Amino acid sequence: MADNDLPPKLSNPSAVPGMAPVDQNTTSEAGKRQFADYMREEPSVKAQQAPSPMQALAPQTNISGPPTMDSVQEQMKATSSQLGDINQKLNTPNLKLKPSEKFLVRSKLEDAHTNIREAAQKVGVDTGPQLDTKGLQNPIAKFIALIGDGQEQLESAQTMIAKYSANGQELNPGELLLAQIKINRAQQQLDFSSIVLAKAIEGIKTLFGIQI
C-alpha cells in the first residue's frame, strides 16, 4: 500500500496522541484505591529470622561503658540462664546428634566452659581442678557435666561479687573488664551451641511428627 493510501490521521505522525502522564489521583482496583497511596507505602518488613550459627559468633557490639560489679553480675546471671536452656535442649527425648553436630557442640561448650572458669577466677573465685569428663562415654552426658560445672562457677562468682559489694569493696577495674570479656565470649559460644541443638531438635520433630 502506498503512503498516499494511508488514512489521513496515520499519514501525519503528529496527529498520533502520546501517552498521558500518570495522574496520582488515578484510582485502581475498581476505584477502591488511589495510585498515590501506593507511592506512599513503606517497604514491607521481612519476618525476623533466627540467627545462623555464624551470626551467633559475630563480635558483640552491645557493650556500652566500662563494666561495673552489678553489670558483670547481671551478665553472669544471664549466662547461667543460657546454660539452663542448653541443658533443657540436651534432655530432649530421642535426641541424637550427627557427628558434625557433636563436634560443634563439644567445641563451643568446652570453649564457653573455659571462658566461664577464667571469668570466675578474675573476680576471685577458686575454681578448683579442671573438670574430668573422661569417664563419661555418652557425649551428651559430657555436655551436661560441662554445663553443671559452668553454672556452679557462675553462682560462686555472683556470690563473690555480692560479698564485695556488701563489704563496700571494689574489684580491680582491669580484672572486672577481663571478666566481662570472658563472659561475652562464653555467651557467643553458648548461642552457637543452642542454635545447633535447636536445629537438631527440629529434625526430631519433623521425623516423629510430634511437638517436643
Description:
By secondary structure, this protein is mostly helical. The protein has a domain of 145 residues. It contains seven helices and two strands, in the order H-E-E-H-H-H-H-H-H. The protein has a two-stranded antiparallel sheet. A hairpin with a 4-residue loop joins strand 1 and strand 2. Helix 5 packs parallel to helix 6 and helix 5 packs antiparallel against helix 7. About 3% of the residues have low confidence.
Estimate the helix proportion, in percent: 55-70%
Q: How many helical elements? A: 7
**Can you give the mean pLDDT?**
81
Q: Radius of gyration in whole Å, from Cα?
A: 31 Å
Shape: elongated
- Biggest pleated sheet: 2 strands, antiparallel
Total number of β-strand segments? 2
Low-pLDDT regions: 43-48
- What is the string of SSEs from the N terminus onward? HEEHHHHHH
Provide the structure class.
mainly alpha
**How far from one another are the termini?**
79 Å
Sheet with the most strands: spatial strand order: 1-2
Report the β-strand fraction as a percent range. Answer: under 5%
Overview in brief:
The protein has 212 residues and is mainly alpha-helical. 58% of the residues lie in helices and 2% in strands.
Question: How are the SSEs placed, and which strands pair?
Answer:
Blueprint: H1 8-11, E1 27-28, E2 33-34, H2 35-39, H3 53-56, H4 69-90, H5 99-122, H6 139-166, H7 173-208
Antiparallel strand pairs: 1-2
Helix pairs in contact: 4-6, 4-7, 5-6, 5-7
Any key phrases for this structure?
single chain, about 210 residues, mainly alpha, two-stranded antiparallel sheet, 7 helices, 2 strands
